[in-house]
Amino acid sequence: MLAPQLAAWAVGPLSLPDEVTHAALRHLLDGVGNAVAGARAGAALPALTVATGLGGPAEATILGSATRVSAPAAGLANGTLVHALDFDDTHAGGLVHSTAVVLPAAFAVGEQVGASGREVLEAAVVGYEIACRVAAAAPNGFHAGGLHATMVAGVFSSAAVAARLMGLDAATTTHALGIAGSQAGGLLAFLATGASTKQLHPGFASQSGILAARLAAAGATGPESVFDGPHGVYDALAPASVAAGTVDTGVLLRGLGSDDPADWETTRIGIKPWPTCQLAHVTMAAAQLALAEAGVDAGEVTAIHAQVHPDSATVVCAPDRDLTRPASAYAAKFSLPWSVAALLIDGAVGVDTYAETNLSRSEISELAAKVSWEITAGDGVAADAAGHVALTLRDGRTVVGRLDRSPGGGSNPLSDAGLFTKFAGNVGELADDLASAVRALPDSGDLTVLLTLAARAAEHPVPAPSPRTEASA
């Protein structure tokens, strides 16, 4: 059985290669910045309102505030905050937003138990590995069935993070993973409506994982067959992949705890340069590259044709909604034509690009209407696919932009300097101090300084212009 082995590793001694520590700190920094930006933009108010109303013992802080609530309630609020702007990181192999389900549990339970910064960091790495591996074992399997892999995998990572910080043993943690499996879900129905449920999924996962660990600690039991079946998470939530033989549960344990940093999924997570669906990024970047090659502005473009991975097309090119005039700001983030057009016209994409007031910009809608695509099967997963865009210009020329993969991930990672530029755009004038607090986690006694600075940063007005990274400059 896989769950007992995964649980034993999750709560056992942990030796982190330096590269893994560095990667984890980069992602926690990015997550804190996204949460602060989400708080300042008021992008997660319903979740914050409910979390505050749930109250409970003052165990953990809602990021960007001084409000303390129960750890499960903080998990709900902070998971939603990290993901609210869709600016958070993505693991290509699992197509999972890892920090949005790792950071909330690590911070909430870490604060609850008075953990040191090192203990929080180590728990976060456990969460990163489990979230990415659970999702990557069934590439696009959960999405193909209409489920958000972030929530499906996130309940397991959050449960493991909480179990480690709570000091649970391997047997109890196995039960926590089994209990978490019964809370896995997250419908993709928001794609056709622009509803805000996607923003809530990491909050649900974080809250549910913390509850699963608490339930196991209180004596509740969960099936140790939660990954293996019968009726495990893959059987129930990715049945087409199981039938096709594309589920590889060996991913859950392969190379786990290796001395080689290349075996750690934590080092393979990409950081987004733009606050929109990652599946559109490679096409956006290829189109921007083609326009730069042409040496003209977007007004000279008469047609845009893209090659799109089939699994990306179902999400960002779906024909069941108007992709040129999105129904909501969130729907615009899942429209490849609209996002490509906005980038080519404005030359950059930031948080303000997806403001409601921008949806009525006729020049973006008109250029978006000139975008066409063909579905081209490529090797590997959609989030790591190559990009190919051909621009037809008013003077009759056709200019092509090609990229091996989207900016921010794989062999094209965002640099530390580029990450700080993004972070500073999200956080504002306290960026240096808050970044220092995150980077100092391995030597910190607790989370107090970091949480205090995050609350102060959220009080400051949103800077202008909005976040721009090296990939969108």
Describe it.
- The chain has helices spanning 2-10, 18-41, 45-54, 71-83, 99-113, 117-136, 141-144, 149-166, 170-181, 197-217, 233-237, 239-244, 281-294, 310-316, 329-332, 336-346, 362-368, 416-427, 431-439, 448-459, and strands spanning 60-61, 68-69, 90-91, 269-270, 301-308, 371-375, 387-393, 398-403.
- The protein has a four-stranded mixed β-sheet.
- The chain is α+β, with helices and mostly antiparallel strands and 473 residues long.
- Mean pLDDT is 94; it is low at 461-473.
- It folds into two domains: 2-270, 2-methylcitrate dehydratase PrpD (Orthogonal Bundle); 278-403, 60s Ribosomal Protein L30, Chain: A (2-Layer Sandwich).
- It is 49% helix and 7% strand.
- A hairpin with a 6-residue loop joins strand 1 (60-61) and strand 2 (68-69).
Which features does this protein show?
two-stranded antiparallel ribbon, single chain, globular, 4-stranded mixed beta sheet, 473 residues, 2-methylcitrate dehydratase PrpD, 2 domains, disordered C terminus, 49% helix, 8 strands, 60s Ribosomal Protein L30, Chain: A, alpha+beta
